[in-house]
Amino acid sequence: MSQSMPRFTVRTFQCPCGESFDTTIYSTVNVTMEPELLYRLLAGTLNVATCANCGRKVASAQPFIYHDMARGLFAYVHPDADLPDDERDELLEHLRTVYDQAVAESERLTQPSTGGKRGIVEPRIRRSTPHDDALKRIYPDAPPMQVIFGIEDLTALVESLLEPEEKLGRVVLSTRASGQQERHRLLSVATRLAEQAHCLVEVEDLPDEYTVVIYGPRARVRQINAALKLLNPR
Ligand SMILES: [Zn+2]
User: Fold this and answer.
1) Do the beta carbons of residue 196 and residue 171 sit within 8 Å?
2) Which among 22, 57, 68, 198 could disulfide-bond with 73, CB atoms 3.0 to 4.6 Å apart, if both were Cys?
3) How far is the CA of 208 from the centre of ligand 1 (A)?
4) 179 CA to middle of ligand 1, Å?
């Protein structure tokens, strides 16, 4: 949670098919700053590496911070829903320690220095501070931090906070053409439409079928559908 912690790292995955590829793994997911990450979570592509050669998907086991400032959700997410109880307890204990240290550090830094005024010791006001109050002082806009185990639980919680028009929508475009030219044309049309509407694109490249999925908020996906009807009037 400190300022110096990188938001993401680029990891190299070695696929059983022999291919190795790089994927961005986020350690801090702030969907207020990067709204597309919300839709990557809903579409199941957040912190998931997909092999460009065989399509195999590998989900990262790395915990991350999920922050939605507008909807008041601030969570530490451990992707493993089946984490054994003892490991859960250990993790919660560790989080409490890190948290208490961060609070103590922050209080030390924000307290006025008494150096140079020897002999005058400011009376220390000892407050029995609940964590939530301390957190509010450090991050005035942040709600209390939740701990969530499992991407499914996070996804369900996030979905419950969305308006109907904000929920995940998809357009699936596919071709059975095996020629690279035809496939590239489909991808470039889909990518252009997605970019214009601030949506995302996922490709499934199989020998007998090439599929491009455009996804994002329903309201924007509807605009893409309308544009596609203009391109391909039936
Ligand atoms: Zn592979």
Assistant:
1) no
2) 68
3) 17
4) 21
As a whole number of angstroms, the distance between CA 193 and CA 179 comes to 22
Going along the chain from its start, the domains and CATH numbers come out as 1-162 (no CATH), 166-234 (3.30.70.260)
Is the pTM higher than 0.70?
A: yes
What is the chain's pLDDT, residue by residue, as a tens digit (234 residues)?
445 567 999 999 999 999 998 999 999 999 999 999 999 999 999 999 988 888 889 899 999 999 998 998 999 999 999 999 999 999 888 888 887 787 777 777 776 655 444 444 444 443 434 455 555 555 555 567 889 999 999 999 999 999 999 999 999 999 998 889 999 999 999 999 999 999 999 998 888 999 999 999 999 999 999 988 887 776
CA of 58 to the centre of ligand 1 (A): 10
Residue 212 Cα to ligand 1 midpoint, Å, equals: 18
Q: How many CB atoms lie within 10 A of CB 108?
A: 8
Centre of ligand 1 from the C-alpha of residue 91, in Å = 32
**CA 201 to ligand 1 center in whole angstroms:** 20
